[in-house]
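FAQ

Q: What does a record look like?
A: Structure on top, sequence underneath. For example:
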């Protein structure tokens, strides 16, 4: 499956120290599994968790799911060894925490290369500090010539650093979220929304997923398997959107419309700029169906 069009509607964090969870993850219908060595693992369990994750990835059995391993920061006692191990683990990507500028991206990418990572291995980064938001354009631009492919919003850490309240409308984070989306789109990156903490609040989770989708995020990071199905539904193109996209493609492909820049499709004024989005919607729908 093309990395560009791979669905990332649901990106589920799984604690690396919990071997039972790593086993259970093989049956969870998340698009992406983020096997976590950082926040979900106590300091005394870091090395054991690394070994457990490497063994699980080597064993396989995760089907078409994308496998991402979140490392500890390079400024910790475990970060460098995490990165070296992940580079040749067979995972699709490494997720690095707390990047703050383009030099972090260049350093991480070079370390991946030095550790023997394949060219196809992607670098995902957490956007979770005020400095990262202030430097977001330069961070995104560092994707040129490096492994960087994806932003993951760390809204819990941003809330702590901002001293902000996590209100239902996420008012305190709108600037950070929108700037990150703008930078990601400017440089062709994937953008994944932050987690929703109240597992039992299904309505709140649904509303936040819909807000993230409407802002332009490709998917959402999740903290519990119960959140997967709803995220998959909300971040997938709706049947109506797919039907309209196909109609747009067909209309512009019709020889009778050759040379026209504006058409009426199912009663809607449609320009050539809508054709590219229509193709993306259809390609994403096909990619999602391929996962089934």
């Amino acid at each position: 499956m093309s990395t560009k069009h791979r669905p990332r509607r649901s990106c589920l964090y799984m604690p690396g120290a919990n071997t039972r969870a790593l086993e259970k993850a093989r049956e969870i219908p998340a698009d992406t599994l983020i096997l976590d060595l950082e926040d979900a693992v106590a300091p005394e369990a870091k090395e054991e968790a690394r070994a457990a994750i490497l063994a699980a990835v080597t064993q396989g059995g995760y089907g078409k799911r994308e496998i991402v391993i979140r490392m500890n920061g390079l400024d910790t006692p475990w970060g460098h060894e995490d990165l070296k191990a992940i580079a040749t683990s067979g995972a699709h990507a490494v997720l690095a925490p707390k990047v703050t500028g383009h030099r972090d991206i260049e350093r991480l990418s070079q370390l991946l290369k030095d550790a023997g990572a394949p060219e196809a291995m992607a670098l995902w980064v957490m956007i979770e500090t005020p400095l990262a938001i202030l430097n977001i354009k330069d961070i995104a631009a560092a994707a040129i010539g490096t492994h960087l492919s994806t932003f993951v919003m760390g809204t819990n850490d941003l809330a702590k650093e901002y001293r902000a309240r996590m209100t239902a409308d996420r008012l305190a984070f709108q600037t950070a979220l929108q700037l990150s989306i703008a930078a990601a789109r400017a440089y062709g990156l994937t953008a994944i929304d932050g987690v929703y903490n109240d597992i039992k609040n299904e309505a709140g989770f649904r509303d936040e997923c819909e807000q993230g989708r409407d802002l332009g995020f490709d998917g959402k990071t999740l903290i519990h398997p119960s959140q997967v199905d709803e995220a998959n539904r909300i971040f997938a193109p709706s049947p109506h959107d797919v039907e309209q996209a196909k109609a747009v493609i067909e209309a512009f492909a019709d020889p009778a419309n050759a040379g026209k820049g504006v058409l009426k499709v199912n009663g809607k004024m449609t320009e050539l700029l809508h054709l590219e989005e229509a193709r993306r919607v259809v390609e994403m729908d096909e990619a999602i169906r391929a996962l089934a």
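Q: Is there anything notable about this one?
A: The first helix runs from residue 19 to 24.
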